[in-house]
Amino acid sequence: MLVKVLDDAKKSLDICVYTITDDHLANAIIRAHDRGVKVRIISDNDKAGDLGSDINRLRDDNHIPSRVDKSPSFMHHKFAVIDDTMVINGSYNWTKGARFDNRENLTLTNSPKAVQGFKGEFEKLWTEFA
Predict the structure, then answer these.
(1) Under 8 Å between Cβ of 29 and 41
(2) Which pLDDT tens digit goes with each residue over 4-43?
């Protein structure tokens, strides 16, 4: 489901996740960027350099704007705002373990109030981590 939502993005994809290690998701993000979707990623600084992490590859090899926190605490959010009209949120880390092994939840909503709240949090962190 998550790959399909990313593949259906038309204009923007603001992703705020602890880490990304699932290549299927990373490749969907790259496809979105390649078709002209404005993609931005916020992630945790400690996880960005982990073995298997796609964060640096998305930023360095694919020129996707990305920022990480610069604090001793975790940036532990797991949400994305798609086209400013939809939010994905839940316990689901964007990892292979979440896809294959873990018990996770993921909610997709088009509630304007939810979209506005998550978009505001994304913009706040994007500015803070500049």
Answers:
(1) yes
(2) 999 999 999 999 999 999 999 999 999 999 999 999 999 9
83 classed as catalytic: yes
The catalytic position among 7, 38, 46, 83 is: 83
Give catalytic status of residue 4 as yes or no: no
Phi, psi of 41 (to 5 degrees): -130, 135
Which of 61, 76, 84, 124 is labelled catalytic?
Answer: 76
Percent composition of the chain: helix, strand, coil (DSSP 3-state, to 5): 40, 20, 40
What DSSP line would sit under 22-85, residue for residue?
-HHHHHHHHHHHHTT-EEEEEE-HHHHTSTT--HHIIIIIT---EEE--SSS----EEEEETTT
76 labelled catalytic: yes
pLDDT in tens, 100-110: 999 999 999 99
